[in-house]
Amino acid sequence: MRILIVEDDHRLAASLRRSLMEARMAVDVVHDGEEAVAAGLTTPYDAIVLDVMLPVLDGFQVTRRLRDQRIESPILMLTARDSVDDRVAGLEAGADDYLVKPFALREVVARLRALTRRHVPNRKSDLRAGKVVLDTAAHSMTVDGKPVELTSKEFAILEYFLLNQGRLLTRGQILEHVWDYEFDGGRNLIEVYIGRLRSKLIQAGAGDPFVTVRGSGYRYSAVRG
Amino acid sequence: MRILIVEDDHRLAASLRRSLMEARMAVDVVHDGEEAVAAGLTTPYDAIVLDVMLPVLDGFQVTRRLRDQRIESPILMLTARDSVDDRVAGLEAGADDYLVKPFALREVVARLRALTRRHVPNRKSDLRAGKVVLDTAAHSMTVDGKPVELTSKEFAILEYFLLNQGRLLTRGQILEHVWDYEFDGGRNLIEVYIGRLRSKLIQAGAGDPFVTVRGSGYRYSAVRG
DNA sequence: CCTCCACGATCAGGATTCGCATGGCCGCAG
DNA sequence: CTGCGGCCATGCGAATCCTGATCGTGGAGG
After folding, report:
1. Exposure check for chain A: N or C terminus, fewer CB within 10 A?
2. Do the beta carbons of residue B97 and residue B76 sit within 8 Å?
3. Nucleotides, chain C, CB distance < 7 Å
4. Hey, is the C-beta of A154 within 8 angstroms of any chain B C-beta?
């Protein structure tokens, strides 16, 4: 699964790259429209994440040139404005989907998954860690087969940890993945949600899988049966 | 059940693909007429969804070329105009059915089912979930064997949920599946219909199978016993 | 070994968003 | 003209989210 990111904001590009790599995608990054066309023409990407506002050539032009050359890689456009014009222009140029800035990184991952999902109708969407099972299609969790209620934020955070089991996740990573990348998180938002997840998981008999790493963040490690 | 989608609007193509995949069909997508002919000649599709307005070769030409080569896959044409000429031209070229844009995605699924039924004559048309039985051929519902009246929109929505039991469905998905893909849904249309379905199902003794996922959508899970 | 402090955990309250019920309007068909 | 299905507007109630304050605790340094 090879993805091209076209984004001139280097900081956002780096965030995107890290997020997609966490989702086990191979990522290339370019920073202007000309490079984007060159890369798209020479490499068969499974999808292209394309900012609209770009130096040299904008996203519409890039899309059109690629489509003119019969490059049919799915294109996910990132648009700053929520103007209908932009949306229409992008889709007419040949984009497959679009996201309005600022977005949560998990949204990008989800859309890319949708765009690149080839005919595998019964793809399993379960994430597992010991007794804990997240059904990402149903947006539900079970522990030992028993359903446990989660709010959508709780679900999003737990999903992120399950996708990165054993890896340290900082508050910053969680914030920009679950909230949007501009969100100015309150002082202890993450702590509150980790606390809620802990109490729900413990109450459901799954123990406490979150390891606090003082000064850095948290790590999820499955509790053995 | 393998389907070829020929549609140059990438976003519509993506929506179509998702809908057909939800209906358990294997889907290939191409974006112009030339690719369509190539794909049609080399792969034995159970049906082809074919836009009329296409780059390189239009839908009529594609149809004619495929028919000339004795490709007999059923063809469902998508036409932007409601002109009789188009319809006649399409049918004369060898298409089997046609749909006028913009259409509801469920229409496409329904037509494809009809077109491919010949090959699978005894397909069951019942959808079940506990006491609830939808007869998709008769457009009627029974709960515990007792008939319950549904309007056509109510029926369409419930059918969609039964086809996707246990899966989270967003308002957007429901809108583009039941209404047409351009429909700009009012503020709380979906809520109103879910509300009606709930009250009818509860009144009929089927309990409330809809689970509200706040901030996301709804999930249908059959009520046991 | 003890103290202190910075960081994390917890709790409660308030703000906000979201969903639901109700009622009414509109357009079409009979 | 009338009835029905489909759609929209409003207001209420509640789930959820976020904040600020307070409490707990691990660990470094003395």
Report:
1. C
2. yes
3. 7-12, 17-23
4. no
Instruction: Say yes or no for a CB contact (<8 Å) between B168 and A115.
Output: no
Q: pTM of this prediction?
A: 0.91
Beta strand B146-148 with A2-6 is unpaired
Question: Counting Cβ atoms within 10 Å, is residue B120 exposed (0-12), middle (13-18) or buried (19+)?
Answer: exposed
Report which of residues A196 and B225 the model is more confident about.
A196
Same domain, A93 and A148: no
Rounded to an integer, what distance in angstroms lies between the CA atom of residue B39 and that of residue B218? Answer: 38
- The confidence band for B126, taking pLDDT boundaries of 50, 70 and 90, is confident
**Whether pLDDT at B183 is above 50:** yes
**In the predicted model, is pLDDT for residue A224 greater than 80?**
no
Considering the domain architecture, whether residues B29 and B110 belong to the same structural domain is answered as yes
Residue B46 domain-assigned (yes or no): yes
The predicted-structure confidence for B186-196, as pLDDT tens digits, reads as follows 789 999 999 99
B130 and B109 within one domain: no
* A2's tokens: 């090879």
Q: Does A212 touch chain B (CB under 8 A)?
A: no
Instruction: Place B225 in a pLDDT band, splitting at 50, 70 and 90.
Output: very low
Please name the nucleotide lying closest to B208, CA to C1'.
C20
Contact A19, A107 (CB under 8 A): no
Domain holding B183, by residue range, is: 126-220
Give one word for A166, left, alpha or beta, with left for phi > 0 and alpha for psi -120 to 50. Answer: left
Tell me how far apart the alpha carbons of residues B206 and A109 are, in angstroms, rounded to a whole number. 38
Q: Which residue has the tokens 């989907």?
A: A97
Same domain as A212, residue A140 = yes
Out of A55-64, A116-125, A152-161, B105-114, which region has the weakest mean confidence (pLDDT)?
A116-125
- Measured between alpha carbons, how far is A206 from A222 in angstroms, rounded to an integer? 9
The structural domain count of chain A equals 2
Residue closest to B213 by CA, chosen among B193, B186, B194: B194
pLDDT at B82 over 70: no
Amino acid identity at B11: R
Phi, then psi, of B82 in degrees rounded to 5: -100, 30
**Residue A144 vs residues A129, A131, A152, A194, B62: alpha-carbon distances, Å:** 11, 5, 21, 21, 54
Distance B112 CA to C29 C1' (A): 29
Residues 37-76 of A with CB under 8 A from B: 67, 70, 72, 74-75
